[in-house]
Write a sequence for this structure.
């Protein structure tokens, strides 16, 4: 029954402790809506069938409702709506009050990524790891504009405001991966501001946490990194590529030449670019570094001033690695097959 | 009904020779400089129709992009500008002025037996103020555009680099037009009613517009204030809303919804008024529960002011606030339900003829019941958490607000077309186009209800692949809807030029506006009528059949 209605209404999987309760109210509300709409519609149709105009000279009696009918018109919807409300409000209060034993995770949202901080553990970007079956409380704030934390499978949503904290909580029930969507409009990258909740079986989660506490290095998404992968002699370009992914640079800057929210990095190094001010600039290490630290200083013509500053967020060597990675993106080095274009344009 | 001084129960005899308002001066200046409420109404109708088609083009551009989940046709910033334009144009250029400033201007004085509105110059001025505000906003939209969404949420709007200032200023100015019209109607209703027209004999459309006018006068200044501050913050970097300058981002939402929630009733109430007229006229019945319908208009106008917090359930609002705003929102639903039951009750023992305006009345009933109840569902706080800012909300307000306004606007347009121009249109084509529109509207927005259930947030340029099928269905529906609207445009323009001339009261309606000539003379009445009964009293018969009224 539950599954039938859930699929009928296109609702996602019920993966949190209150998803099923909310859905049951949802079914009830939708059913009464359809019944009421049908009742009104059928009544109108019935009257239409019976009382069609018989002649142009037809007159009609003057009818007014009795007090009983008036009372029914007011009380039926009032009682029905208050019933919906009473059930829904009880659920809302439950959702609004996290249990005392909840695990805390701090959430920082910014254009256009999610950052998760565990009080005694790692930071992670865009990936939130939680144990199944345990309540998790999120304490959320934003660094720039209003965002909203939404996991459809959990039936959980809460705005993330700048300058203040909001909280929400959930108990995930089914291990798996669920998408985090930003549901409050926040600009050019709003629709790609997506993250992931990874619900782990409690034992796995404990093991992961223990590894972290033993000091095993981990990547930005919180995955423990096998020691051998963190070779000291990784090239700067490799490191830069990793940073570009972790920091979300490539959400707005493509590396294949396609136009997106920011200029593509392909062949950017050495390119002559026209700025918004009309000034011409050659893209060099200096310009790249400046644009990471103070993106608004020189905007390439045709693009908007939407990039956040990475001042104090990236260490010097990390910026160097990023710049090296950008420099490495030249068409002839990226292409690993021979060019398929003809040497000369065909003559017609 | 209306009676002449000698008390004869029939319509006022039209003098054989009179000058219809359309012929009283035919130069362009005679229109641009008119004091005639009917001409102002007609000019408003032309302007809002232009706005409607402009907003419709933006809507189609959005729907076509959403055929594909990834980047397609144009980039994300263009998409953000487009949905902002769609919202602003539809709400401020079309839905808010459409029925009050258009039809209200035309029929309200006729309905209460007045020669004009109380302040004819102010009335004309309100149109020019609207034109000025709309032009300024449009100019800003073309030069740089604005990407904040029609809701202008801070601090996004106070930090955006797009050209928000002229658009905000334009909307600020349009607000004055709304206030002027509202004020004019309030004074007109209070002072210019014909002898014998007591409050409880006023047509229900007048009650609805009166309720609307109260909201316009009281709520619009709050929006003006809020937008003004956003504009100043955006250009001069004040810190009222931006937390980096010590402001409070949620303050804006309170101010914004304090206007914009009642604004929903600025749009819907007049449409409800049109429905009360159309349902009575086509079922030839007095309004069942006239008092209830009239008072519920005032009830909605009043309670609507205290429901704004239901737009903010997930902002971090306390449970107590959520509870209070939730319960108050339920009351709005009760007032609406009262109207719906009484409209259906009006059909009981009526004499129903199924013409184009009545088709729209049926569509209206359906959209208001279904859209309205999904609204109550949204005010059921725990359900709102999942639905908030998803396509469910989009579908809900398009059903109840847009559906209702479009149905009301088209019903009014088809019902009063003979009144305004003295000509008839092709009723068959009217029924075809109306059916297409109702069908297309459902096909557009029912998939969006389901998209919201599935969890697709609004204002998404790119979306996860699993949402594609429903998006394609929605776009197909929108095409149908657009096609229906084009048909109307064609046959109404044809009717305007070469439609069959009709008599004074082609529907045989006993709405008061029909008791003078169609089209009326500039001063509406040769003798101000004396009113002896309520509107739509069909105990005696009026005849007329220019539309080939369908009887069985």
């Amino acid at each position: 029954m539950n599954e039938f209605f859930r699929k009928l209404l296109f609702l996602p999987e019920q993966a949190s402790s209150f998803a099923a309760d909310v859905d049951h109210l949802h079914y009830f509300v939708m059913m009464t809506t359809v019944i009421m709409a049908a009742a009104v519609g059928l009544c109108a149709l019935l009257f239409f069938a019976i009382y069609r105009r018989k002649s142009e000279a037809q007159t009609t009696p003057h009818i007014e409702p009795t007090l009983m009918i008036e009372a029914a018109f007011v009380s039926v919807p009032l009682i029905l709506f208050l019933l919906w409300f009473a059930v829904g409000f009880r659920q809302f209060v439950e959702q609004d009050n996290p249990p005392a034993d909840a695990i805390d995770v701090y959430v920082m949202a910014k254009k256009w990524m999610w950052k998760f901080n565990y009080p005694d553990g790692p930071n992670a970007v865009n990936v939130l790891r939680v144990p199944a079956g345990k309540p998790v409380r999120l304490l959320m704030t934003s660094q720039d504009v209003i965002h909203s934390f939404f996991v459809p499978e959990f039936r959980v949503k809460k705005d993330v405001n700048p300058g203040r904290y909001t909280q929400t909580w959930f108990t995930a029930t089914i291990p798996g991966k669920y998408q985090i969507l930003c549901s409050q409009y926040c600009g050019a990258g709003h629709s790609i501001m997506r993250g992931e909740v990874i619900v782990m079986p409690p034992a796995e989660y404990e093991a992961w946490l223990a590894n972290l506490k033993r000091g095993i290095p981990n990547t930005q998404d919180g995955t423990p990194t096998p020691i051998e992968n963190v070779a000291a002699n990784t090239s700067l370009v490799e490191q830069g590529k990793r940073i570009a992914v972790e920091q979300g640079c490539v959400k707005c800057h493509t590396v294949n030449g396609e136009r997106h929210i920011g200029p593509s990095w392909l062949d950017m190094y050495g390119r002559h670019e026209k700025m918004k001010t009309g000034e011409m600039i050659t893209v060099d290490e200096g310009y790249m570094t400046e644009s990471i630290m103070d993106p608004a200083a020189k905007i390439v013509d045709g693009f908007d001033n939407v990039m956040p500053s990475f001042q104090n967020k990236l260490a010097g060597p990390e910026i160097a690695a990023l710049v090296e990675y950008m420099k490495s993106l030249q068409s002839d080095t990226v292409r690993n097959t021979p060019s398929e274009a003809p040497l000369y344009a065909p003559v017609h | 009904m209306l009676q002449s001084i000698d008390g004869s129960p029939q319509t006022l005899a039209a003098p054989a020779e009179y000058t219809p308002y359309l012929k009283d001066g035919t130069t362009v200046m005679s229109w641009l400089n008119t004091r005639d409420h009917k001409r102002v109404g007609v000019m408003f109708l032309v302007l809002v129709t232009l706005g409607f088609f402009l907003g419709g083009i933006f809507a189609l551009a959005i729907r076509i992009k959403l055929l594909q989940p990834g980047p397609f046709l144009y980039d994300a910033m263009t998409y953000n500008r487009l949905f902002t334009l769609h919202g602003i144009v539809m709400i401020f250029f079309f839905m808010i002025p459409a029925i009050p400033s258009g039809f209200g201007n035309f029929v309200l004085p006729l309905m209460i037996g007045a020669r004009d509105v109380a302040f004819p110059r102010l009335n004309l001025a309100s149109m020019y103020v609207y034109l000025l505000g709309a032009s300024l906003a449009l100019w800003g939209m073309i030069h740089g555009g604005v990407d904040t969404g029609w809701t202008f949420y801070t601090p996004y709007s106070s930090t955006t680099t797009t050209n928000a200032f002229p658009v905000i200023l334009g909307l600020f100015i349009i607000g004055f037009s709304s206030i002027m019209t509202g004020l004019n109607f309030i004074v007109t209703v209070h002072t210019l009613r014909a002898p014998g027209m007591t409050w409880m004999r006023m047509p229900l459309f007048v009650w609805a517009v009166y309720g609307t006018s109260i909201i316009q006068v009281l709520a619009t200044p709050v929006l003006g204030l809020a937008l003004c501050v956003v504009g100043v913050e955006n250009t001069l970097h004040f810190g009222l809303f931006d937390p980096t300058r010590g402001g409070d981002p949620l303050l804006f939402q309170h101010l914004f919804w304090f206007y914009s929630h009642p604004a929903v009733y600025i749009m819907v109430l007049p449409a409800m008024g049109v429905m009360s007229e159309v349902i009575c006229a086509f079922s030839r019945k007095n309004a069942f529960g006239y008092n209830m319908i009239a008072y519920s208009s005032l009830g909605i106008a009043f309670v609507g002011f205290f429901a704004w917090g239901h737009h903010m359930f997930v902002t971090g609002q306390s449970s107590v606030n959520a509870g209070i705003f939730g319960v108050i929102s339920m009351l709005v639903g009760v007032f609406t339900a009262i109207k719906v039951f009484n409209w259906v009750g009006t059909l009981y023992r009526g004499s129903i003829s199924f013409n184009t305006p009545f088709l729209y009345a049926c569509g209206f009933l359906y959209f208001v019941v279904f859209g309205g109840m999904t609204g109550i569902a949204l005010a059921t706080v725990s359900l709102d958490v999942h639905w908030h800012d998803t396509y469910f909300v989009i579908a809900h307000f398009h059903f109840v607000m847009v559906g209702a306004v479009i149905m009301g606007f088209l019903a009014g347009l088809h019902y009063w077309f003979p009144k305004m121009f003295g000509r008839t249109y092709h009723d068959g084509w009217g029924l075809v186009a109306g059916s297409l529109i109702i069908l297309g509207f459902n096909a557009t927005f029912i998939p969006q209800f389901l998209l919201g259930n599935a969890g697709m947030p609004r204002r998404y340029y790119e979306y996860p692949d699993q949402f594609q099928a429903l998006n394609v269905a929605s776009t197909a529906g929108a095409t149908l809807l657009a096609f229906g609207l084009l048909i109307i445009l064609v046959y109404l323009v044809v009717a305007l030029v070469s439609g069959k001339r009709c008599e004074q009261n082609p529907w045989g309606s006993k709405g008061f506006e029909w008791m003078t000539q169609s089209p009326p003379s500039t001063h509406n009445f040769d003798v101000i009528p004396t009113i002896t009964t309520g509107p739509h009293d069909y105990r005696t018969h009026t005849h007329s059949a220019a539309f080939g009224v369908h009887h069985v």
Q: What stands out?
A: The two ends of chain B are 27 Å apart (CA to CA). The first helix of chain B runs from residue 28 to 32.
